[in-house]
Amino acid sequence: MNNKERQELAMWAVEFAKKKGASEVAASIDNSRSSEVEIREQKIEVIKESTTNGLNLNIYRDHKYSGHTTNNLNKKDLEKFITEAVEATKYLTADEFRALPDASLYPTDLNKDLKLEDKSYNTVAPEQKIQIAKEIEQIALSKSDKIITATGGFWDSYSESVLVHSNGLVADRSSTFFGASGSVTVRDGDARPSGGDWAGGRFFENVPSAEQIGANAAENAIRKMGQAKIDSGKYDMLIENRTASRLLYMFMRPMSARSLQQKSSYLDGMLGKQIASPLLTMIDDPFIAGGFGSRLYDGQGIAAKKRVMIEKGVLKEYYIDNYYGKKLGMTPNGGSSSNIRFELGSRGFDEIVKDVKSGIFVTSFNGGNSNSTTGDFSFGVSGFLVEGGKIVKPVNEMNISGNAKEFWQQLAEMGNDPYKYSSWLSPTLVFNDIDFSGL
């Protein structure tokens, strides 16, 4: 079944549901394929391949709402499935805010090519994927006799979907993804530090070489040898670009309409006010070619728009989904993020670290949480001690805690090195005088 046939089936499902008594209907049909291989000791440790097809049906009946899913796309069977779904919905409690988005919120131009699909997806042979994974493992193992184990991996996916709403939306999209990874464990006395690396993109040609991934995976494990706690105290904090999204994500839940409506957001009432250092400008950009989060519309069918969420530390927008937007009397603009990029600084990590007299370079977060209601947070971290502009030794089992309202005011520099293998294109972040708990 191709997307045109899926679209015809979704349109039929919507009309059939309306004939059976639904007031409004949203139907989506998705098809996805994926494969995964993992190599250890030059043997296949994991090999998976899967294909899924399914219809998701959202029924609105006199402001009563229900969601239904089936993998059976036979039209005769769907008649019974849809009839029962519509009938069951009438017994639910009415909610005046349950309705499809207003048709004015739907995209008007669905022809823009965001470069999300590699047309040669089916030409990448299984043997190629296995060979890449084998090479990653070989290269990683060759980097040190301290390495105990290494694995190499490769995965890919292909997805097609159509979305039809009874009040006018008919849309479809397709996307591909390819990724490769390495994982390494080293012997360090009684300890067994591990590290890894992964990279990929929408196109097969975006996957870096096995040499690069294997070498990075080995380096990320080896450099952890000798990890230890250090004394508690105030340190400047550098956050690795590929790790920074863990901190930045603490903005997302408080910026959501659901948190606002449920009074569980410390950002409630803060539109137009300073919530972070003037160095922080955060942009939601769904139109980046090949972006991991790029899209023309979200899962609710609401048109994607480029938006400045935080400008020079000032909160400019919230994420407003359809349901909670109606409850709040706010115009929905999409309830989820796409690609998040930032206004960058002028220096990369190597230049930044030279100016750090006493700091900790954080490369991973090991548990912890952030409270969207109060802004309080606590995270376990590991990384490296920086002294006199040089990385001195690895550290772990450290902890940072505080409140987002004060913490983001301590942001002192944004790097110019955005991490490209994520929808969060975050650069190196630098914070001054952060309290670390250790010994």
How many helices does DSSP assign?
9
Distance between the termini: 61 Å
Oligomeric form? single chain
Specify the structural class. Answer: alpha+beta
- Global shape: globular
Low-confidence stretches: none
Question: What is the averaged pLDDT score?
Answer: 96
Q: Major sheet: size, sense and barrel closure?
A: 6 strands, antiparallel
Strand order of the largest sheet: 3-2-1-4-5-6
Q: What's the number of extended β-strand segments?
A: 16
Query: In percent terms, what proportion of residues is strand?
Result: 35-45%
How many whole angstroms does the radius of gyration measure?
25 Å
Query: What pattern of helices and strands is seen along the backbone?
Result: HEEEHHEEEHEHHEEEHEHEEEHEE
Helix content: 10-25%
Short précis:
20% of the residues lie in helices and 36% in strands. It has helices at residues 3-19, 75-89, 126-141, 210-222, 245-248, 257-261, 322-328, 349-353, 404-407, and strands at 24-40, 43-61, 64-70, 147-165, 170-186, 194-201, 233-239, 282-284, 307-311, 314-315, 340-342, 358-370, 376-387, 390-403, 411-414, 429-437.
Structure description:
It is a single chain. Helix 1 packs across helix 2 and helix 3 runs parallel beside helix 4 (210-222). Strand 4 (147-165) and strand 5 (170-186) form a beta hairpin. The protein has helices at 3-19, 75-89, 126-141, 210-222, 245-248, 257-261, 322-328, 349-353, 404-407, and strands spanning 24-40, 43-61, 64-70, 147-165, 170-186, 194-201, 233-239, 282-284, 307-311, 314-315, 340-342, 358-370, 376-387, 390-403, 411-414, 429-437. Among the domains are: 3-31 and 50-105, PmbA/TldD superfamily (PmbA/TldD fold, 2-Layer Sandwich); 227-439, no CATH class. A 6-stranded antiparallel β-sheet has the order 3-2-1-4-5-6. The chain contains 9 helices and 16 strands. The chain has 439 residues and is α+β, with helices and mostly antiparallel strands. It is globular.
